[in-house]
Amino acid sequence: MRIDIVTLFPEFFTSPLQTSLLGKAIANQIAEVHLTNPRDFTTDKHHRVDDEPYGGGVGMLMKPDPIFAAVESLPILPKREIIYMTPQGEPMKQAMFKELANYDQLVLICGSYEGVDERVCDHLVTREVSLGDFVLTCGEIPALALINGVVRLRPGTVGKEDSLKFESFEDGLLDYPQYTRPPVFRGWEVPEILRSGNHKLIAEWRKEQQILRTKQRRPDLL
């Protein structure tokens, strides 16, 4: 999988892309990430990437021409999605990550200032994606979240791939409580059933806990 990030701040990704499982996945060529700065495609002497919005308003907008030029400079793989990170987009969900993990190429456009010229969304972007119902200073943060969520689903990223089948949202429920050693910590005990060795009863308990936890914390999922 090839991931192209169109960003005014490529240095934002330096450490995250070299860290933990994501860094290992990139090092092992499970995914390759390329950074492209729209400022490199400006044609004026000041290298401006933003301007005032027509009709007035607070703040500045990213100009369309550097963004188009940056994306058009990239290679085109067969199955490609051009994604603009915006609070107005489709909220990120596990199902979305599973879908995008099967793509050959993801192009992620990170907005700044008050966003981008609407012609970028109308004529270049194929999908708008949001991290949630809130506003951040830049699109780099949600872009990194999307990359992490997608790449971890690619074969070879997670050591025990079966673990991907038993986690929150995989069957529409939150994950069950989990414990490790010691069996008693500050007087708090690990549930006895988890120490019983009875795998059938453990599976039933875990499913009950998933339903209970989802009812309590995310009833909208049921």
Order of helices and strands: EHEEEHEHEHEHEEH
The percent range for helix content is 25-40%
Number of domains: 2
CATH homology superfamily name of the largest domain: SPOUT methyltransferase, trefoil knot domain
Pick out the low-confidence regions. none
Helix/strand-derived category reads alpha/beta
**CATH-derived architecture of the largest domain:** 3-Layer(aba) Sandwich
Total E-strand runs: 9
Sheet with most strands: 5 strands, parallel
C-alpha geometry = elongated
Binned strand content: 15-25%
Rounded mean pLDDT score: 94
Radius of gyration: 22 Å
CATH first level of the largest domain: Alpha Beta
Spatial arrangement of strands, main beta sheet:
2-1-6-5-7
Number of helices in the DSSP assignment: 6
CATH topology descriptor of the largest domain: Alpha/beta knot
What separation lies between the terminal Cα atoms? 33 Å
